[in-house]
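Risk mitigation, structural track. In case the binding assays with tetrahydrodeoxyuridine fail to produce interpretable data, a predicted complex structure has been prepared as a fallback.
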Amino acid sequence: MEQKSITINYTEWQEEELEPLWHLLVAAAKAATETAYAPYSHFFVGAAVLLEGGEVVCGSNQENGAFGAGTCAERTALFYAQAHYPARAVRAIAIAARSGEDGFTEEPVPPCGICRQVLSEVQQRAGKPLHILLYGKRCVCQIEGIEGLLPLGFKL
Ligand code: THU
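Fallback model:
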């Protein structure tokens, strides 16, 4: 028997401390919350994906009255990016969320399990660790590589 452990490192930044590129990407994710269609949850999520070459692709959550049919902001942005720029590796993703009338969440909102699985394959396709930025009013959480959100992830 061998007991093992996994350590996850991440950085908490104040928004204004972020380097200009990440500041821009976070701003794009915040702006993307405006395009969310969330009449059921009233939880408005935005994601901004930075591609190799500099393009930024945004997405937001899109809900549907047939509840399982909707999709998260992260997958909207990632699948759009892969559909429109199949040859461009994804370098980074920023995520932000607003809740009802309360404005942006105090704490960074981490992606759901399905989005983590998608991010894992997006990173595999890119061949290098993704920069992941989770926005909250209290801090922006930066994680280098999806393993920080999905340790022991499933891969085909
Ligand atoms: N949602 C996202 O867009 N991203 C996540 O990672 C978590 C959840 C959306 C799905 C649904 O429209 C709403 O937030 C409430 O769960």
